[in-house]
Amino acid sequence: ANHADLAGRRVVVSAGGTREPLDPVRFLGNRSSGKQGIAIAEAARERGAHVTLIAANLEVAEPEGCDIRRVSTALELQAAVTEVAHGADVVVMAAAVADYRPANVSEGKIKKDQSDDGLTLELVRNPDILAGLGHAEHPGTLLVGFAAETEPDDDRIIALGRAKREAKGADLLVVNRVGWNEGFASDENRVVVIGRDGDVVTRAHGTKQSVAHDILDVVVAEVTAVTT
Ligand code: C5P
């Protein structure tokens, strides 16, 4: 790749997975390691961009040379992204955001009740951060979403990706298959990138670093097309 093709661009990347507290010691979380998002942040920086990384509970080391904002919950991630997205050339939402959070966060540790044999948690919906960005508020910002799907079938994954890109108003949607042994903790990834017409713009597989550069190749083409 051309390693100065994002020079002068401002890129925002969210990475990792949000945690939603139940009480002072417990949370609802997910298995996103943050590796793919970090690889994108690093690759964008290598290609000359100014990168702000919104880091949600990363399981790997933070990259060098990026502005880093640490967040934990979906609401914190939303506040951070919304603040830095203004005027950005690209926003990549690679973070796995909890769809729901506990309706009530207990002040003290939730205790077992000896008399019952179960516990029901009430959850409320978190806002959809990517869908909430939108081109009305962010004209000229390329919005890139991710979708982690557990469907085994490739065509089905692509169909889900098309629908998700539309629903969220993203310009590009990167779909990857995740499961017990694929995607999240792994050092490799296999993705399909869906474009504005719903077509498959690119397919990439390999290390998360090489996949990051392949995704950025598409981003660069789009950003360049928008501004020239
Ligand atoms: O709907 P789903 O969670 O599959 O969508 C994934 C994409 O949407 C990712 O880009 C993720 O960062 C983003 N997302 C979000 N806010 C949510 C849930 C997901 O921005 N509440």
From TrEMBL:
Pathway: Cofactor biosynthesis; coenzyme A biosynthesis; CoA from (R)-pantothenate: step 2/5; Cofactor biosynthesis; coenzyme A biosynthesis; CoA from (R)-pantothenate: step 3/5. One of its GO terms (molecular function) is metal ion binding. The keyword Cell cycle does not apply. The chain holds residues 187 to 414 of 425 of the full protein. The lineage of its organism: Bacteria, Bacillati, Actinomycetota, Actinomycetes, Micrococcales. Keywords: Decarboxylase, Flavoprotein, FMN, Ligase, Lyase, Magnesium, Metal-binding, Multifunctional enzyme. Its cofactor is Mg(2+); FMN. It comes from the Bacteria. Residues 11-228 are annotated as: Phosphopantothenate--cysteine ligase. This is Coenzyme A biosynthesis bifunctional protein CoaBC. Coiled coil: none annotated. GO terms for cellular component: phosphopantothenoylcysteine decarboxylase complex. It catalyses: (R)-4'-phosphopantothenate + L-cysteine + CTP = N-[(R)-4-phosphopantothenoyl]-L-cysteine + CMP + diphosphate + H(+); N-[(R)-4-phosphopantothenoyl]-L-cysteine + H(+) = (R)-4'-phosphopantetheine + CO2. CTP binds at residues 99, 109, 127-130, 146, 164, 168. The keyword Nucleotide-binding does not apply. It comes from Agromyces cerinus subsp. cerinus. Its EC number is 4.1.1.36, 6.3.2.5. GO terms for biological process: coenzyme A biosynthetic process; pantothenate catabolic process.
